[in-house]
Amino acid sequence: TVPPPSVDLAGIDDLLTADEIAVRASVRQLCADRVDPYVADWFERGEIDDVRGLAKELGTLGLLGMHLEGYGCAGMSAVDYGLACLELEASDSGIRSLVSVQGSLAMYAIWKWGSEEQKQEWLPRMAAGEAIGCFGLTEPDAGSDPGSMRTRARQEPSGDWVLDGRKMWITNGSVADVAVVWAQTEDGVRGFVVPTSVAGFSAPLIKHKMSLRASVTSELVLDRVRLPASAVLPDVRGLRGPLSCLNEARYGIVWGAMGAARSALEAALTYAGERTQFGKPIAAFQLTQQKLVEMDLEYTKSLLLALHLGRRKDAGTLRPEQVSLGKLNNVREAIEICRTARTILGANGISLEFPVIRHANNLESVLTYEGTVEMHTLVVGQALTGHPAFR
Ligand code: FAD
Fold it and tell me: In 10 A of CB 112, how many CB atoms?
């Protein structure tokens, strides 16, 4: 196969170390072997074949909880993790979501806020992909405002906790072995490590999605779920807990979205070079070139921003509003790049024979989850002006 034309005109690769380029190459190879040939079919059917086998392969490569230390995790840098997210999302946002939710949400919650016992029990298996995790924060009536959640956890005199409530739009829910569930308690919001085999827990699949179809999305139903006292995450109370995890996952999205953008840009470049109208390749028309140039420009700027934020994260200086800036810009630009690529492919742009419409549709979810455009605008707005405008 002919390699796609290079879209790295600015030479951003020169800012990466040889080790970082090697990590990227290994993820790219896994995606080429294990995801790319099948993912359009998974998207069309709304089902990932052998998701457990795929999770194990992702685990074997060290991609699950990749940036965490200890407990079988790979302990890689934030930039390595970002590059992995980019490659995974160049294949499909759904596959990157599987990895993000596992590593940055479910595993991170246990790693950061869990007891030693919880860490020992879950993290090594999750890092290996032998156990899949999900993260239940959103509810039918509580999305951008998770503080209004209704799921309740009540502690009985015996010490047992009893959970009642519903979570909505939960990635990996129906295939998860463990759910990190956030619930209101007398002490404010707390997190619980819930084995999904426990009585009263169910996770029906959400159907009819037109986006992120190569990803399991579920409702979580907690009907008098009884857990031992040891199930609560001991080290955090309040929304600080879930928000700290979301900040990790959002960081991955800053990079991941550029993977979808790169894939669409490469597809458009290749197509424009091959498609002839009015006697010449459409790439030779100025209007097409302008589109391609604008796409490459925004891709380049967004990738630089991702790398800058990654270096800050590795230096320990990354602030939440900086992650918001990255998520806001990069998802917005990625979706625009995919939509423009779609126009270059003409009618073929709407076909799953090409990756473009799949990426564009996927990014509609990415635009909304992990904080909507509006929420991140308000975070950046507050950082700029000092005025919170959330309510
Ligand atoms: P709402 O909060 O109802 O917002 C609707 C609109 O109102 C948005 O445009 C929003 O920005 C706007 N809005 C709300 N408040 C304000 C305000 N103050 N000012 C201005 N505008 C405002 N959640 C999980 O917990 N775990 C998961 O694994 C998970 N996976 C997901 C997977 C997919 C495919 C999708 C689509 C969602 C997933 N989510 C998950 C849920 C996601 O995080 C929420 O959808 C998101 O937080 C937005 O909540 P909402 O959909 O209820 O929208």
Answer: 17
